[in-house]
């Protein structure tokens, strides 16, 4: 039966939900006829008068004999009697469904009447409602953009399931599927407990002597919080009686946590209060995204397409956001330090926020971020606590690899997970040497996340010769080395970013660097400090290339981190003939910083020296755009690492360029690019932030508009990119798509 073939839909129980459903089905033409039944004749008559149903049936047998889809919208306790009464008229080709807020009891009711769960019954629950009740409150838009959960069983007929799902979708709902038990647990936590608390709080205050005073002054917060205490008491009584076990479980947890808060208040323990409040606030802001495995920041929930038109020249005086690598490390070391660490210039991008959230989940009280300021109440080397669940690290490889090392030496078990892109990235490169240090760490299929770490391992120092030049691997081992007995040393095949080494020293932890070898001994402590995070040269890189390739450009980038292990992009662009000047050099917290002025200059192709590769590892997508705009040929080799970043950056760039009419020669470890005209067209960034921004830069020299797909992840490293780009002359529009 297809949705349009529902001839007669019958609703039993014309309250708010039943009435709204009947009205929605009628208005949207989802059934040829809608009939209803309510044991209160007045409600049934009102439903007919209001046009909520076409007619009302005199009894349940008549109703059942006329309908092909029957919706039970009665209290949980009434389901069995209603089924019993209509049973004589029920046929196997009827489709039965319900809207009850508890599913286990409803399943039991069906089984008690039919001896087993009938195949034609599809249990469901729309997550929508209102504190109003009765048919007079019926609202045909009630389910629009709300979720409806269906809980099919193995016996459920797939056709019946399809019809019910189509009805809900037809009413504008998003349909989700889950098991009966899971539904009841989830709802106990997200709906039943909050209603219970609201009823209880209002009752407590209403019983107080000065209740008139309290209610007279009860404004915003009280009203918002207790709105649901105006809900139907009988319905809610039944919810608690029928979902007893799941509700008790979550109620006990809440009770215990409330006691902790009460004790904290009694003891004047502001730290505990702040910890709960900062964690709760962050969770409130980010939980939807975390659950969906998406970005943390609410404004990037949906996907984003860039439409990049002709812009330029690129002129102005700007500061790009804070350095991602340093932001990660500032949270990690600040958390393990003794005392309060103050950070300025923190990158409020998804990746750094994932690290921040991970430490909150491990009990660290972190205030902010607030316009780049973060305050960390350090817990000391051994003060982290087991997180309540897996640590979700979004898109961030740095978070996962560095945390793998840092957490190998803790006393608790932990699991590290990430989004679709991170879940494909190699983790054995850290797991293998960490195992040699005594860590109990496992990766999943193909050496990928999730990464599971067993607590309580005794780590011992090792010497490790890194097979790849990776700052993440080096840092992971150095952080594990903080917890290892003896000396841990790492030798790198080529210099990589040394922010971990510099920042550890800033926190007073001795680190020995001798040529390509870093050595650290376990057992010392970190002391809180102040950190000023400079602008990220990897973000500045987009503007360095943009101004270099666009005639008439003259742009200044302020306070950019110019650590020698990060300036490959400047060296390479200069070799290509770029006009880049550094001034105002200073050192901030052990990191060199400068202002950078870049003006348009004709570029020429070069063979990129391989030793520059690790020093510009994240800047190649945009350097490829520079290469296409340069005269002659540019050859990159020794860069196979690009294939295991957020996407395969060699192939993704080659494919995107091809879509714009630019050919390239892809090699296993690099690419050959020649001067070419960039056309308009559509490219796919594959969710890789740096690819998305690189093609936005390409638009400055393209003959037509470039449409760039899948750009939401720009928020991982460069929040506010579109606005800043437009400020200096880009013509970039970000369109949100659902
Ligand atoms: O240590 C770091 O902060 C980073 C190291 C680099 O990764 P690899 O170590 O994998 O090269 C880089 O690509 C990443 O964006 C940040
Ligand atoms: C590779 C990158 O980051 P990560 O490895 O932390 O995901 C990047 O930002 O380009």
From TrEMBL:
Reactions accelerated catalytically: 3-phosphoshikimate + phosphoenolpyruvate = 5-O-(1-carboxyvinyl)-3-phosphoshikimate + phosphate; prephenate + NAD(+) = 3-(4-hydroxyphenyl)pyruvate + CO2 + NADH
Location within or outside the cell: Cytoplasm
GO CC, one annotated term: cytoplasm
Pathway per the UniProt entry: Amino-acid biosynthesis; L-tyrosine biosynthesis; (4-hydroxyphenyl)pyruvate from prephenate (NAD(+) route): step 1/1; Metabolic intermediate biosynthesis; chorismate biosynthesis; chorismate from D-erythrose 4-phosphate and phosphoenolpyruvate: step 6/7
Catalytic site: 618 (proton acceptor)
Record text on subunit structure and interactions: Monomer.
Protein's name in the database: 3-phosphoshikimate 1-carboxyvinyltransferase
Species in which this protein is naturally found: Hahella chejuensis (strain KCTC 2396)
């Amino acid at each position: 039966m297809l949705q349009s073939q529902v001839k007669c839909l019958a609703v039993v129980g014309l309250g708010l939900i039943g009435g709204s459903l009947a009205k929605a089905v009628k208005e949207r033409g989802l059934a040829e006829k809608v009939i209803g039944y309510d044991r209160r004749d007045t409600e049934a008559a009102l439903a007919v008068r209001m046009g909520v149903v076409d007619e009302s049936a005199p009894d349940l047998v008549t109703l059942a004999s006329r309908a092909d889809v029957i919706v039970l919208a009665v209290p949980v306790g009434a389901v069995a009697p209603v089924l019993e009464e209509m049973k004589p008229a029920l046929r196997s080709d009827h489709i039965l469904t319900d809207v009850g807020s508890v599913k286990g009891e409803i399943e039991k009711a069906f089984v008690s009447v039919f001896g087993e769960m009938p195949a034609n019954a599809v249990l469901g629950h729309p997550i929508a409602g209102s504190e109003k009740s009765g048919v007079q409150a019926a609202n045909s838009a009630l389910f629009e953009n709300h979720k409806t959960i269906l809980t099919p069983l193995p016996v459920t007929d797939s056709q019946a399931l399809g019809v019910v799902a189509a009805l809900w979708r037809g009413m504008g709902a998003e349909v989700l599927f889950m098991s009966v038990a899971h539904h009841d647990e989830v709802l106990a936590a997200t709906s039943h407990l909050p209603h219970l608390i609201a009823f209880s709080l209002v009752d407590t205050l209403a019983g107080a002597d000065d209740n008139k005073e309290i209610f007279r002054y009860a404004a915003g917060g009280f009203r918002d919080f207790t709105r649901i205490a105006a809900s139907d008491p009988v319905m809610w009584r039944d919810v608690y009686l029928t979902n007893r076990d799941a509700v008790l479980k979550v109620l006990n947890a809440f009770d215990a946590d409330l006691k902790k808060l009460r004790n904290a208040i009694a003891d004047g323990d502001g730290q505990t209060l702040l910890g709960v409040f900062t964690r709760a606030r962050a969770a409130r802001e980010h939980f939807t995204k975390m659950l969906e495995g998406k970005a943390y920041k609410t404004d990037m929930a949906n996907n984003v397409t860039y439409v990049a038109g002709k812009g330029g020249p690129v002129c102005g005086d700007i500061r790009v956001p804070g350095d991602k690598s340093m932001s990660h490390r500032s949270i990690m070391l600040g958390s393990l330090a003794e005392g309060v660490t103050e950070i300025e210039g923190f990158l409020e991008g998804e990746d750094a926020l994932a690290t921040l959230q991970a430490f909150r989940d491990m009990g660290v009280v972190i205030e902010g971020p607030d316009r780049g300021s973060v305050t960390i109440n350090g817990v000391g080397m051994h003060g982290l606590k087991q997180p309540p669940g897996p640590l979700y690290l979004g898109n961030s490889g740095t978070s996962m690899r560095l945390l793998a090392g840092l957490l190998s030496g803790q006393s608790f078990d932990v699991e590290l997970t990430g989004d679709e892109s991170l879940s494909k990235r190699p983790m054995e490169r850290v797991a293998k040497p960490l195992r040699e240090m005594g860590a109990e760490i496992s990766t999943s299929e193909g050496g990928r996340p999730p990464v599971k770490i067993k607590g309580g391992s005794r780590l011992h120092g090792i010497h490790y010769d890194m097979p790849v030049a990776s700052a993440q691997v080096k840092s992971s081992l150095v952080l594990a080395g903080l917890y290892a007995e003896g000396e841990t040393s790492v030798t790198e095949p080529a210099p990589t970013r040394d922010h971990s080494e510099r920042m550890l020293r800033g926190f007073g932890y001795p680190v020995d660097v001798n040529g390509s070898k870093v050595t650290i001994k376990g057992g010392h402590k970190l002391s809180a400090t102040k950190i000023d995070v400079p602008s990220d040269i990897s973000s500045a890189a987009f503007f360095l290339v943009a101004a270099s390739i666009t005639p008439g450009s003259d742009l200044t980038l302020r306070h950019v981190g110019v650590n020698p292990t990060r300036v490959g992009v400047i060296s390479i662009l200069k070799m290509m003939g770029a006009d880049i000047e550094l001034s105002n050099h200073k050192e901030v917290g052990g990191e060199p910083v400068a202002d950078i002025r870049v003006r348009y200059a004709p570029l020429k192709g070069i063979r990129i020296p391989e030793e520059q590769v690790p020093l510009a590892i994240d800047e190649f997508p945009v350097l490829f755009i520079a290469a296409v705009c340069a005269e002659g040929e540019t050859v990159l080799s020794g860069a196979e690492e690009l294939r295991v970043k957020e996407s395969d950056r060699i192939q993704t760039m080659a494919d995107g360029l091809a879509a714009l009419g630019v050919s390239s020669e892809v090699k296993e470890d690099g690419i050959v690019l020649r001067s070419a005209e960039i056309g308009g067209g559509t490219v796919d960034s594959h969710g890789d932030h740096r690819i998305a921004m690189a093609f936005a830069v390409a638009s400055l020299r393209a003959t037509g508009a470039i449409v760039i797909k899948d750009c939401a992840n720009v928020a991982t490293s460069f929040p506010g990119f579109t606005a800043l780009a437009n400020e200096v002359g880009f013509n970039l529009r970000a369109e949100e798509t659902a």
